[in-house]
Amino acid sequence: MIKRPARPFRSLVSALGIAVLAMMAAPAFADDVTTFVSDGAAIGGTDPVSYHSGGEPLPGSDEFTTTWDGVTWKFSSAANRDAFVANPEKYAPAYGGYCATGASFGKKIPIDPVYWKIIDGRLYLNNSSAAQDHFLADESGTISRANANWSKIREIPAGQL
């Protein structure tokens, strides 16, 4: 029997190739690139359920948190946290919590939680009164443009846009 020499380089290349393929096949999850995070929490720690249930943004608490799509979300109550956990897609804001008007221009802009609107059950956040006014002047057009842009900018870090 002829003994062949070991080929560690070839094994290493094969292992790396398999690892790269596995990473490419893995599903993408949200994180602080695809979700607006400030002060260590999504949407700056504002309770996303409060917009729907109380009609105003409430600050979340360190006492009531969950992790969803790789980031921490804060809530003003256990009930709001539990509602979010049961159906996060219902409560999570559009465009990862970035400014809806900014997304309509292909930009990821941080938000100010006091500028918002719920349309067809979806929470849209904006950066300023000017961005909110622009959004409200053409809601469907802004949303349509933002939807088209979001698929292009979602995975790009905000500072690179």
Keywords summarizing the entry:
7 helices; 161 residues; globular; alpha+beta; 41% helix; 18% strand
What does this molecule look like?
This protein is α+β, with helices and mostly antiparallel strands and 161 residues long. It has one domain (37-156). 41% of the residues lie in helices and 18% in strands. The chain contains seven helices and eight strands. The chain has helices at 8-25, 48-53, 78-86, 88-91, 100-104, 129-137, 139-153, and strands at 37-38, 41-42, 46-47, 58-59, 61-68, 71-75, 116-119, 122-125. The strands form four sheets. It has a two-stranded antiparallel ribbon. A two-stranded antiparallel ribbon has the order 3-4. Strand 1 and strand 2 form a beta hairpin. The longest helix has 18 residues, at 8-25. The model is unreliable at 9-30 (pLDDT under 50).
Count of all domains: 1
Helix and strand content put the structural class at alpha+beta
Low-confidence stretches: 9-30
Mean pLDDT: 86
Give the amount of beta strand, in percent: 15-25%
Tally of strands: 8
Strand order of the largest sheet: 1-2
Shape: globular
Main sheet: strands, sense, barrel: 2 strands, antiparallel
What count of helical segments does DSSP give? 7
